[in-house]
Design goal:
Structural class of chain A: mainly alpha
Number of helices of chain A: 21
Distance between the termini of chain B: 36 Å
Number of strands of chain B: 4
Largest sheet of chain A: 2 strands, antiparallel
Strand content of chain B: 5-15%
Distance between the termini of chain A: 44 Å
Order of helices and strands of chain B: HHEEHHHHHHHHHHHHHHHHEEHHH
Radius of gyration of chain A: 23 Å
Strand order of the largest sheet of chain A: 1-2
Largest sheet of chain B: 2 strands, antiparallel
Largest interface: A-B, 46 and 41 residues
Number of domains of chain B: 1
Oligomer: heterodimer
Chain lengths: 510, 544
């Protein structure tokens, strides 16, 4: 079946590879950083200092330079259609590198690491590995590549979730994450095999050509879409693939919770958008759909159930991390709204706003946990008076998560709902669900400021609650950004608009 | 000018942020200075306002100039969007007769609120920062002419209010604060959807872009015919009108969305009650006049009857509830509901008399109810209770207080010679002359009777007669041989002190003056209201 390639063909392959490598520099750079971190860890073993963390920070920051250079490159396919470079991928490269940087910063202030682990060893290397995996997720254009990059992210995620080895909850989180991850990626691969069975292609663009040329059985197609969605849905934490997330978010080290809830979720969205928009575009092809169902219908179901479930179940949470876990399920629902109306700009803008406010919220949660040793709602009583700045910052982030002006979260919601209503009255029903659930969300988000400001602490005030200067500055910076981008959001919007272009997109995006 | 009056309190808030929290007096003085400066600006705006210009819709050539005054219009956000054309949001402020009266009211009530906040001892710094934020947002709402800007100000009000009730409130404050927050947010999120839908339905006649400008939205010819809220989509226009109306009605508050108000008032500290009743409630009816009615005139015309009925329910139901209250503050809160019913009734008449009456009633209710809540606060500070039957015979021991209360109470029930009378009379004149609301007006007159009943009855129980056995105060024979009143742990002056008089006397004078000579306010209103009535009239609509 396989013929040996001729000499000329081999020459051609080598030439393609050589050409492609030039488009792959950030990934190569990050891989070198990953290995460098392992070496540094070996050399500097036993010395407890911030060497690793600072190397990671500098290294990750340096990578933005290489990513920036890629803006001048033409969008296109690399490595025989395995990988693409386009504005969409570039957006996520920045997004993940910044997430990595913030994850490191957040880790540096978290005092729980001092108590739980002796050496930070491979921790930072794993964060970098996850950045690489997520960047590749956002750039994959082939079913095989999608699977590989997703597994890279998942495996690093499993280890990071269980990084507090002696902590039972952390180990439980890792195990749950692993079990659910294994099942859902199994389902996803089954979905891929069905698609390969229909089209005999693994490249997303070629799949769409095949589907356009020959059509497909709508029943098989919807089944395949559903199976693939199981994989993506697990990554984005949407109902009904969300079962892992509350336990994992609660049990994991908080920086990892923040990292998973922002970056890993965004990576899932990047994949989901690219897969569905490129491989099985909606509405543009003359394929007869006997069922009247397609992936948009599935996403609507996912989105509506995520918004309702996430926001309603969060009402009863007593642990702040768990509460934010349910809120992240709900936010996955809002993000899906942007995908349903095929508006990349709104989705990307929402991701940016989510990045700011969610990292901000988790950062303050860590700072508070450093002082109180607890993430229970009950222990937040009276904290607003003892640490007013942290209280104000957390309130701003939570208000932003609700989606009230003048915060960046409001802009995200504004764009999502504008995208829905720009379709006329078609999606008003879903918009209403989104609006109503965000009213519900106000109640549980406000439980935190309620405990911080409205209730008196039950415990005696013997401990000093003053925060160090550096974390205060970082927290204030995040808070100001959340507010400033809520009023002057043009740069975010422009960036999201620029980034909405995808290589191989056959339909106009809106 | 308008930017300054809007953002002055926020600037004061930032200054306060830099003041150490132990310097309570400096914090208070900074707030007071900002409020006084706001007052000066309000007076300047009042002086510079030309009552001949109508407002409501755009002037000649589609420009707001020549119709609105003190206009400030700069592009705020102008974006080319991938998905949905371009996004244009303007920082667009301006006043017409409707808003200029509210601006003056807001400046007045804000300043009184600062004075009334002098007694707040708990976390003074945080209190005044939030208070100033609230004051800015309220003022912003009244002068914003861009729907987006209006919405931002509208939502910014919620959070400070939540904390002001929640931290500085009474025993049941958590419940009251979150109830207020959820109710108003529930109303405003629908406003967000309508706002977006309107944006996609309206084109600015000058630039040809979609716009959030309320001025452009008020002209029906700017609507795209087949857009979601365009003239062809009758069903969605009704839906949009109803949800917007509910959003504003929650703020008014209109029956059956009123239940947050008594809770919020009872728990809120006195200055916040004053702000809430004096300004915030007006935002509901202001929103109706500025946004709801001119944008959907045909729906307004079809629903005048319904609005009138709700107004009547508010008047009578509010008065009956007030009659049943033991808590003086709760009684005043329900009286607010009743009085805001007159505003709704006046609006539903749809003619100049009714609308002018409604607007005038908004202004008068702001001043009178502020006075009522201040007076409730005075007695609560001294006796730590507001139960009406814990008092009796107060008139003999606190004569000044009793006198002020009597005037305020009479103003509230609409005694001729006081401002409340004129506005209520105008509302009824309007409602009677409109055939749609004539019978509703007849029923609503009952409200005046009930109103007189609860006000006079409470006056009688608290101030006349003699001390009851379980009263909240003791009587002592003083050195001069007369009986003196004594409150437990109250060190201050028994009767009204200087600060309290400084708050009450201006309000009292305004009430008296506007009761005798209402033209300063009515004069500013008339041309705008005439224009509004013209916009709302079916003749204009048939011409579109």
């Amino acid at each position: 079946m396989f013929e040996l390639p001729s000499g000329a063909e081999i020459q051609g392959i080598i030439a393609t590879l050589k050409a492609s490598v030039g488009f792959f520099i950030p990934e190569i750079y990050l891989s070198v950083l990953f290995m460098l971190l392992i070496v540094i860890d070996l050399v500097a073993k036993g010395r407890k200092n911030n060497l690793l963390a600072i190397t990671t920070l500098v290294g990750l920051a340096g990578s933005t330079l290489f990513i920036f250079q890629q803006h001048s490159l033409p969008p296109g396919e690399l490595f025989f259609g395995m990988y693409v470079l386009d504005e969409f991928a570039l957006f996520f490269k920045y997004f993940f590198v910044l997430s990595g940087i913030i994850a490191v910063i957040v880790t540096m202030v978290d005092e729980q690491f001092d108590r739980e682990v002796k050496s930070m060893g491979e921790y930072y290397a794993l964060i970098v590995a996850m950045v690489i995996g997520m960047i590749m997720m956002a750039s994959s254009a082939d079913l095989l590549m999608i699977f590989l990059s997703m597994e890279l992210v998942s495996f690093t995620g499993y280890i990071l979730a269980g990084y507090f080895k002696r902590n039972a909850r952390s180990s439980e989180a890792a195990l749950k994450y692993l079990v659910y991850g294994a099942v859902s990626s199994g389902l996803m691969v089954y979905g891929f095999s069905l698609i390969y069975g229909i089209t005999a292609q693994t490249n997303l663009i070629k799949i769409s050509h095949e589907l356009a040329a020959h059509g497909s059985d709508s029943l098989v197609m919807i089944f395949a879409s559903l199976l693939v969605l199981a994989g993506f849905g697990y990554k984005i934490g949407a109902v009904p693939f969300h079962f892992w997330s509350p336990d994992v978010y609660e049990g994991s080290p908080t920086p990892i919770t923040a990292y998973l809830s922002v970056a890993s979720k965004a990576a899932g969205f990047a994949l989901l958008i690219r897969f569905f928009y490129i491989a099985i575009p909606h509405g543009g092809l003359a394929v007869e759909n006997k069922l009247g169902l397609d992936w948009v219908t599935l996403l609507i179901i996912l989105s509506v159930s995520s918004m309702i479930y996430g926001n309603v179940v969060a009402l009863w949470q007593k642990n702040v991390k768990r509460l934010l876990a349910y809120s992240s399920i709900a936010h996955a629902g809002y993000l899906l709204l942007g995908i349903i109306v095929m508006n990349n700009q709104a989705t990307l803008l929402y991701l940016l706003s989510y990045f700011l406010m969610n990292f901000g919220a988790f950062y303050v949660v860590i700072l508070i946990a450093n002082k109180t040793g607890s993430e229970n709602l009950e222990d937040y009583r009276g904290l607003g008076i003892k640490m007013p700045l942290a209280g104000a910052a957390l309130t701003v982030f939570l208000i932003s998560l609700v989606g009230l002006p003048p915060t960046v979260g409001f802009i995200g919601k504004l764009y999502i709902f504008s995208a829905l209503l720009s379709k006329g009255s078609l999606y008003i029903g879903i918009a209403l669900v989104g609006i109503m659930t965000s009213v519900i969300s106000l109640y549980y988000y406000m439980l935190i400021p309620l405990n911080m400001f409205l209730r008196e602490s039950k415990r005696p005030d013997d401990k000093s609650m003053t925060l160090a200067v550096a974390p205060q500055i970082f927290m204030t910076a995040l808070m100001i950004l959340t507010l400033v981008f809520g009023i002057f959001f043009a740069p975010l919007s422009d960036f999201a608009n620029y980034s909405s272009a995808m290589f191989g997109m056959t339909l106009p995006l809106h | 000018m308008l930017s300054l009056i809007v953002f002055l309190p926020i600037i004061a808030g930032l200054v306060i942020l830099a003041v150490p929290s132990s310097q309570k007096q400096i914090i208070r003085i900074v707030s007071l200075l900002a409020a006084l400066a706001q007052g000066v600006l309000a007076v300047l705006i009042w002086k510079g306002y030309n009552p001949a210009l109508p407002g409501i819709t755009a002037g000649p050539g589609g420009s707001p100039l020549g119709s609105f005054q003190f206009v400030e219009k700069v592009p705020w956000i102008s974006l080319h969007l991938g998905g949905f054309g371009s996004l244009n949001i303007e920082y667009f402020l301006g006043v017409d007769g409707i808003s200029v009266t509210m601006v003056i009211l807001t400046a007045l009530v804000s300043a009184i609120g600062v004075l009334s906040s002098w007694t707040i001892q708990k976390q003074v710094k945080g209190y005044f920062i939030l208070y100033n934020l609230l004051a800015s947002a309220m003022m912003g709402c009244f002068v914003a002419l861009d729907f987006f800007l209006f919405y931002v100000f509208w939502e910014i009000m919620l959070l400070p209010m939540y904390f002001l009730i929640g931290i500085w409130g009474g025993p049941n404050r958590e419940y009251a604060a979150i109830k207020f927050f959820l109710y108003t947010l529930f109303g405003s999120v629908f406003m967000l959807l309508v706002m977006i839908a309107l944006y996609f339905s309206v084109l600015d006649p000058v630039t040809g872009n979609h716009t959030f400008s309320l001025v452009a939205m008020a002209t029906q010819s700017n609507y795209i015919k087949d857009a979601i809220l365009g003239p062809d989509n009758v069903m969605w226009r009704y839906v949009a009108f109803i949800v917007l109306f509910i959003g504003f009605a929650i703020k008014v508050p209109m029956f059956p969305f009123h239940t947050w108000l008594p809770d919020a008032h009872v728990e809120a500290p006195t200055p916040i009650s004053v702000i809430l009743a004096g300004v915030l409630l007006k935002l509901g009816t202001y929103g109706m006049i500025r946004i709801n009615f001119p944008l959907f005139p045909e729906v307004f015309h079809a629903s005048m009857y319904v609005i009138g009925i709700f107004g009547a329910i508010n008047i009578i139901y509010g008065a009956l509830c007030a009659l049943a209250q033991q808590d003086l503050k709760k009684m005043v809160a329900y009286s607010s509901i009743s009085h805001m019913g007159y505003v709704l009734l006046g609006l539903s008449a749809g003619n100049s008399e009714g609308m002018v009456g409604a607007l005038y009633q908004m202004f008068n209710h702001g001043t009178i109810t502020a006075m009522l809540f201040l007076l409730v606060g005075v007695i609560y500070d001294r006796a730590h209770t507001r139960q009406i039957d814990k008092f009796g015979g107060l008139a003999s021991y606190m004569p000044v207080y009793a006198a002020v209360v009597t005037v305020a109470w009479f103003a509230s029930l609409g005694l001729p010679g006081l401002s409340g009378f004129i506005s209520e009379a105008l509302v009824f004149v309007g409602a009677f002359s409109s055939p749609t609301t004539r019978y509703i007006a007849m029923v609503s007159v009952l409200g005046i009777v009930f109103g007189a009943a609860y006000l006079l009855w409470s006056l009688q129980r608290m101030f006349l007669g003699t001390r009851k056995a379980d009263a909240a105060y003791d009587l002592q024979i003083g050195t001069d041989g007369h009986e003196h009143i004594h409150f437990h742990d109250w060190k201050g002056k028994i009767d009204l002190d200087g600060r309290e008089l400084a708050m009450l006397v201006p309000l009292l004078l305004i009430t008296l003056f506007l009761g005798i000579y209402p033209m300063p306010v009515l004069g500013m209103l008339t041309s705008s209201i005439n224009k509004l009535v013209q916009v709302l009239s079916p003749v204009v609509m048939s011409q579109m």
